[in-house]
Amino acid sequence: MAGIGLFRIFDPKVRRHLISDEGEVVIDEVRHHWVVFTVPMLEVVLAAALLLTMATTKIGGQPVLLAIVLVLLAHAFWQFLTQHRDRFVVTNMRVMRIRGVFSQTVATTPIARVLDITLKKPIIGRMLGYGHFVFESAAQDQGFREIKWVSRPDDRDLTIQRVIQRTGLRASASVDVLKGDEDSDDDGTGPIGMDSAQEVATTTAPITTTTAPQARPSSSPSATKSIFNSERGNWTDD
């Protein structure tokens, strides 16, 4: 319990940055993958090994070794805090990146400014389950250019895509594209213009040649003779 309480002390407290009165909620809070804690953990193991060596053997230079142990532990603890407090947050309104230990940096941008998202998964990342996101947006100078060491990258990518889809940005963009096509077709030069359609119908209409039947003698004196009028293209009676 004490470890959990100590862990919460260093939590960046993302929810206090939300616009609660406007209905903003957290969709996903992205923490770094555990692989970023590999180096700090190795430093802790090395420091523990040095301490064990100092306690079990009588070697010279123990003050130097003790100083090395303290440096290793301090650096490992600093790296742990730095990685733990670096969060990428997706809400229903915007994306945020919160980082920093003593001094905190909070960068935000509306979800509408996210243009393109590229997901990079190296070979080791595919095996361990992490990836890197590259954002093409108007907020690249605010720290959103690249988000590294993201756990479950495929799920996070789908989450971001769903949020963008629910905002209606892509739907409105599709409507704008359709409106632009209709406006370009009003002059009759587009693929669905009225003049073009008539021209296509005229050029592609099949030409049927009909041979007039031979007139047969009729025994009725009131019978009429039908001839084919080539200019009007129909049958007429004299």
From TrEMBL:
UniProt-annotated stretches for the region Disordered: 175-238
Highest taxon in the source lineage: Bacteria
Pfam families, alphabetized: bPH_2 (PF03703)
Name of this protein: PH (Pleckstrin Homology) domain-containing protein
Occurrences of domain YdbS-like PH (ranges): 87-151
Biased composition (Polar residues): 225-238
Protein species of origin: Kribbella kalugense
Alphabetic keyword roster: Membrane, Transmembrane, Transmembrane helix
Biased composition (Low complexity): 201-224
Membrane-spanning segments: 34-52, 64-81
